[in-house]
Each structure stands twice: as structure tokens, then as C-alpha cells.
Amino acid sequence: MLTKRFFKTKDEAEVTFEFSHPNAQKVELVGEFSDWKPLAMKFVKKDKAFKLKQRLPVDKQYHFKYLIDGEQWDNDSQADAYVPNSFGTDNSIVNTQRLA
Fold first, then answer.
1. What does the pLDDT average to over 15-40?
2. Among the four 37, 56, 64, 99, which has the fewest Cβ within 10 Å?
3. Domain coordinates in residue numbering, the chain
4. Bridge partners of residue 40, in order along the sequence
5. SS3 state of residue 47
6. Which of 10, 8, 30 is nearest to 19 (CA)?
């Protein structure tokens, strides 16, 4: 799940990435905004989900995926869009376009 917060005085959006997986010990966010380097997500017990906040420039689209336990890839079920990648699967898309 993606939650976005926009700021009146900054050209960036704060995006909260949230991902639930019943058996995951570790989930990492991997995307264009991190040069495809994994970013560790924190498990939030009360929400039973892994979360990470990331500030991203507005009016852009970024490809991303979740890496579960260092071996299994998954998409965000509520991403803004999906696009095919060169591995024969899809990438999730987060769009930081500010809505009027």
C-alpha cells in the first residue's frame, strides 16, 4: 500500500510504502530512487506490516519492488501502475504527481 503526503513549500512527496507478508522475516524496498539498492523496511507490530517512508521529488514516476527475505520479489498490490521489466515480470509504479 502507498500513502502519499505532499508539502506546500517543498517539491517533494513523502511516500509511505507498506507491505504485509505472513511469513516474512525481512522485507526490503528496492527501486529506481535508491539505484536499485535494497532499503530495509521496519516491521510495525500493530499494523502487522513492514513500512518505510521515503521522500521523493514530485511529478515523477518510479519503478519499485519488494524483496522478501532476500530471495522472493513481489509487487505492491495497490501500486499506481505496473510495467513489464526485463526479467519477464512487472515492476510496481509510484507516481508522485501532485493532484489538484
1. 96
2. 99
3. 2-95
4. 28
5. helix
6. 30
